[in-house]
Inverse folding.
């Protein structure tokens, strides 16, 4: 099968064997999305080698084999594939949570492998990813996609869940003044998720075309160069710019005892004046992955718009060019179709 | 009167006029304590000029004058001094909250001027401080000291309140594993306050003599060089080392979704890997001043020990030498007696 791989410091579409699955499900990818994390990996910043990509929608091609003893954990290549496991059946359209835990630690036992110390992460840590014709994931990671959601929207489930993760980390009151730093796809998703709480949302960005999208959604927009005029105005600020400068800008925008949520990861250090966090008693909350259920609900009810975030679509064979294109300023989501 | 002042980049004990008070109380300082913030100011790092010092215990010398209209706000120099205001009387022993707000903003109106944008801060921002024979503060800032607490302990009320401020910012469960980075006077106070919650407390430090004090209080102690062995072991970490390296060590010690409380302020930038905060979903909470009531309760009931934190006492006239001494490694609290 074809897969977009980063190995030996080189990004290329390669022909590799289809994943072997005994105790996991095999999924035929129908559409995948390029995330800034993919770009960081392709720059060699994340220490990952293999098939990249973690945003996808696909069809269950094979479920784990049923072992003669009746448990999939003991299944062998001689056992027949299952036709259904739990709510999942062969041929079903699914999205997949990207963290696969050890299944045994206390975090995994309560159903949240997102911080399992031994986790693999689809296309990010120790597990081949989604920019490929097929991928494998534990059955527990797969979630059926409601019929109302087309593939082009379902592929946003993972990044939208990441935006929803903000609300798992901080409680936002309906009368809060909220700001989002960054007008990229993550920032635009975060702004929409914040707005579902009733909070007023201001988006700080650098790109006219992206700020126009935010304006169409009813958000106040501010060019980052003018951000200082709004110093100490906000109760909560989401840093989604992917740039170290976003951290200090966030501290500028917050009033005392405000909350800065860090969403974007990027390579390298950030120089901060930690005394400002102390003197103004700021809370800084890191936020990574969110649960998919909340995101699928928002997509099913059209409570957020992802249509305007789709910039371009490429075939998987054209994956290298697609990644280059996704890195250009002004672009939003670039999709890959196997 | 004598006062220890930093002005024109020079620290000196000078003779200056006694503070003029119409609408504030005049307090005769009986004992003051040297804080690391004093050292930062005396190095020219904090932008403050005037009498330094903000930890004190003293005697009310004069209460605000009673105006003919009956409100102290309108008092003039012709009005007679009051003998009592609220629970305060002339001659009473008091400590004083160091933030004096505008009295009109929403924060001041609910009785918490600690983040008033127009606040002055005793010996730190726009207000002469406590290393002097007399100081003035608003009546609302003064709190009577229970008889059971000797001056030498009461002078710890402000830094102990700062340690108690941690519990205003984060809730700590009785089964929490807590760590304190820094074996200075602030770290040793923080460790004792944390222990009042029932949490187990480990103190990370660099000085054998200070770690011994912590050990006497029943805390586990670890030399900072060996800290990495305890990576990902703690639910909450208090950074009280006064060093930029404490921030990153705190991130090392916390398990995912742990809480790092920043207590110490210091001059200059800190280089952090912000991605670690995101990936491990750490919460970083700045904490500055706490309320005095909680601290006085702990002192009155002997729930914390401050006796072992007193290193030396100097006369106010010897203030410059006292500050030099307080900056030496191995020293804890140095007191000044006017």
């Amino acid at each position: 099968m074809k897969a977009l791989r980063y190995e030996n410091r080189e990004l290329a579409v390669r022909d590799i064997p289809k994943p072997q699955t005994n105790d996991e499900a095999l999924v035929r990818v129908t559409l995948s999305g390029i995330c800034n994390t993919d770009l960081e990996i392709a720059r060699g910043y994340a220490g990952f080698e293999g098939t990249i990509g973690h945003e996808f929608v696909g069809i269950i091609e094979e479920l784990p084999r049923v072992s003669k003893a009746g448990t999939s954990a003991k299944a062998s290549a001689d056992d027949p594939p299952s036709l259904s496991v739990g709510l999942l059946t062969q041929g079903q359209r699914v999205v997949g949570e990207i963290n696969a835990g050890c299944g045994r630690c206390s975090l995994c036992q309560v159903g949240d492998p997102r911080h399992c110390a031994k986790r693999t992460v689809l296309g990010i840590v120790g597990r081949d990813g989604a920019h490929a014709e097929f991928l494998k994931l534990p059955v527990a990671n797969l979630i059926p996609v409601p019929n109302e959601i087309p593939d082009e929207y379902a592929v946003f489930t993972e990044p939208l869940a990441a935006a929803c993760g903000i609300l798992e980390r901080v409680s936002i009151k309906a009368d809060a003044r909220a700001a989002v730093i960054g007008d990229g796809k993550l920032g635009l998703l975060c702004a929409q998720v914040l707005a579902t709480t009733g909070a007023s949302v201001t988006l700080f960005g650098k790109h006219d075309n992206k700020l126009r999208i935010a304006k169409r959604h009813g958000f106040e927009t501010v060019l980052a160069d003018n951000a200082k005029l709004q110093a100490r105005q906000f109760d909560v600020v989401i840093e989604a710019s992917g740039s170290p400068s976003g951290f200090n800008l966030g501290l500028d925008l917050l009033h005392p005892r405000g909350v800065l949520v860090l969403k974007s990861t990027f390579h390298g250090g950030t120089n901060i004046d930690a005394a400002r966090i102390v003197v103004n008693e700021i809370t800084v909350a890191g936020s990574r992955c969110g649960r998919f259920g909340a995101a699928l609900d928002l997509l099913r009810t059209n409570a957020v718009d992802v249509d305007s975030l789709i910039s371009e679509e490429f075939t998987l064979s054209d994956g290298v060019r697609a990644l280059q294109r996704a890195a250009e300023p002004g672009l939003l989501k670039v999709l890959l179709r196997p």
Notes: Chain B touches chain A at residues 107, 115, 117, 169, 232, 244, 247, 255-257, 262-288 (CB under 8 Å). The first strand of chain B starts at residue 2 and ends at 7. The two ends of chain B are 10 Å apart (CA to CA). The CA atoms of residues 61 and 333 of chain B lie 26 Å apart.
